[in-house]
Amino acid sequence: MGDGVRALVGRMEELLVELERAGDPARFFLGTYLRTTRAVGASLDRGTFEDAPWVEEWDVAFADLYLRALTAHQEEEPRAVPRPWRIAFDADPDLPPVLHVLLGMNAHINFDLPQATVQVIDPASFADQGLLERRRRDHERLDAVLASRVGAEGREMESHGTPRTWLRAVLGPVDRFATRRFLVESRRRVWHNTVALHEARLRGTDAAERRIADLDALTSARVADLLRPGPVLLRVALRGFGVTLPPP
Q1: Which of 24, 30, 34, 215 is 20 to 30 A from 62 in CA distance terms?
Q2: Which long-range contacts (CB under 8 A, 24 or more apart) does 83-87 make?
């Protein structure tokens, strides 16, 4: 585990203690994210990625967007919290832990990840097709790390009191499929959205800001949709999870 991920894990651990002490439901997503970050660190150590230093830089930049939103939420500065995160953080505290996790994952992957990816792939790198393909392959390898966490995180949610009702028993296989599917599908869409943000960046600051606003609106609508009554994961399985920026 490199210094960047090690420092990130330490910061997450400190924040998790604060959230748990306060009983803030944001602790559920942060706990999942902390365990996932440790798994990414272990994968870096195993040589899973083609360009480990770049993946570490990307992982830290990605997490920083979430941590900035979380800190603003803790400090009660709503204007500093992006709208998708505001919806997630303001959700009913009594919702099942698994739903708080899904709200956070939706906001973070759909809204933050394309921005973080553009941040760590400069225009010159986008013009280098061989380098871009290496970035894409490492992007896909991260899917496998996240998918490997699905079973463990399901057990973690049960330990937080998510009931194993008859409906959960019936939808269990669908739940697992939906969770894996959304990880793969949403990251595929993330790559599409990353390219769209890059193309907007080339057109100038105003164009880039408009595309981020578009991404904000799409992600906010998807986060809000998760709060509608009904079997959330079944809807995910049937409709997908990610968002796709339309042509400008």
Answers
A1: 24
A2: 83/216, 83/220, 84/110, 84/111, 84/216, 84/219, 84/220, 84/223, 85/111, 87/220, 87/223, 87/224, 87/227
Write down the pLDDT at residue 159.
Answer: 56
Q: Which of 84, 82, 96, 100 is nearest to 19 (CA)?
A: 100
Helix axes 113-120, 166-203, angle to 10 degrees: 40
At 243, give phi and psi (nearest 5°): -120, 155
- Would you call 162 helix, strand, or coil by DSSP? coil
Q: Are 219 and 110 in contact (CB under 8 A)?
A: yes
**How many residues can be counted in the chain?**
248
Cα 165 to its chain centre, rounded Å, is 27
Distance, CA of 226 to CA of 233 (rounded, Å): 9
> What pLDDT is recorded for position 47?
93
The pLDDT value given to residue 158: 55
Quote the CA–CA distance of 154 and 239 in Å, as a whole number: 21
Measured CA angle at 131 (ends 125, 134), to 5 deg: 130
Element counts in the chain: helices (H) and strands (E): 12, 0
Low-confidence ranges of the chain (pLDDT < 50): 163-171, 173-174, 177
* Residue for token pair 């999942």: 32
Structure tokens at 246: 């339309």
Q: Tell me, what's the pLDDT at 167?
A: 39
Q: Give the 3-state secondary structure percentages of the chain, helix then strand then coil, rounded to 5.
A: 80, 0, 20
Nearest CA to 178 out of 227, 226, 140, 232 is that of 232
